[in-house]
Write a structure and sequence with these properties.
10 helices, eight-stranded mixed beta sheet, hydrolase, globular, Alpha/beta fold hydrolase, alpha/beta, AB_hydrolase_1, Rossmann fold, 267 residues
Length: 267
């Protein structure tokens, strides 16, 4: 059974997290929509590790004091809480991030004492795509019109489904986190503003080994971003899953975990 523990980031935010099993800590950072339960399919595949699954600030019950957080502060806040988790666990952990969690993992690994990073489709926009990115504004317009569900549907359609689902309502009816995730719309908008403003440097100052994962069925701009991130890393390795979407860790947990374990074993 997992244990529930807490730690505190530098800004005083209380971070709750679940710790599963024994072994080297594997800190799992979920993306823009999925709650910490996103990682449940993956955890059984890491028997020799100790998966650490936090509830991101702003998601679920950890909203205290965050409603006024501006987009310029969001990434710093995320990195701060990851560093707090790194300090709270024993030894040098591995960071395993999905989407926005992958971007946070890369930024935190610049100076946090971690052994390695696994990043599934980091939420980084290619430069040409970022110039025209306006998802946050379009979501805000729907939210301002008191259409919370419509705002979140726009995100799901554009990012999770890559605009390729004909009957989105039917798809959502089968999606386990819908409609609970509608409550997260303000945080998802803030997160998207970070993504739209983030500029990938020519070289990411991450000196530990990084596994970058992507899937052929996700948004093409995220696949391009995964390649760009890989090229910016001093010690990067890229894996492209055939037939897997942006939700790779939850959709194909066994394949994802196999690649992560193999990568960690080789380093």
């Amino acid at each position: 059974m997992p244990t529930t523990e807490t730690t505190t980031s530098d800004d005083g935010t209380e971070i709750k997290y679940e710790r599963h099993g024994d072994g080297q800590p594997l800190i799992c950072l979920h993306g823009g929509m999925a709650p910490s339960e996103y990682w449940q399919p993956v955890i059984p595949h890491f028997e020799t590790y100790a998966p650490v699954v936090p509830q991101r600030p702003g998601f679920g019950t950890c909203r205290d004091g965050l409603d006024e957080t501006g987009p310029d502060d969001v990434l710093d806040r995320e990195v701060s809480y990851v560093r707090a988790l790194v300090d709270a666990v024993d030894g040098e952990p591995v960071l395993f991030g999905h989407s926005f969690g992958a971007l946070t993992a890369l930024e935190a690994a610049k100076d946090a004492p971690v052994e390695a990073v696994a990043a599934y489709e980091p939420a980084v926009l290619p430069e040409a795509f970022a110039e025209h990115a306006d998802l946050a504004d379009r979501m805000q317009e729907r939210l301002d019109a008191d259409d919370r569900a419509g705002s979140m549907k726009l995100y799901v359609d554009q990012v999770v489904c890559a605009g390729e689902v004909d009957d989105l309502d039917a798809w959502l009816a089968e999606w386990p986190v819908w409609p609970d995730c509608v409550d997260l719309v303000e945080e998802v908008i803030r997160m998207n503003r970070v993504v739209e403003r983030y500029a990938l440097p020519d070289r990411l100052d991450v000196e530990v080994p990084v596994l970058v994962l992507t899937g052929t069925e996700g948004p093409e701009f995220l696949r391009e971003s995964a390649r760009n991130v890989h090229e910016a890393l001093p010690k990067g390795h890229l894996v492209d899953f055939d037939g897997v979407s942006h939700s790779g860790p939850a959709e194909a947990p066994g394949r994802t975990a196999d690649e992560v374990r193999a990568f960690l074993g080789s380093h």
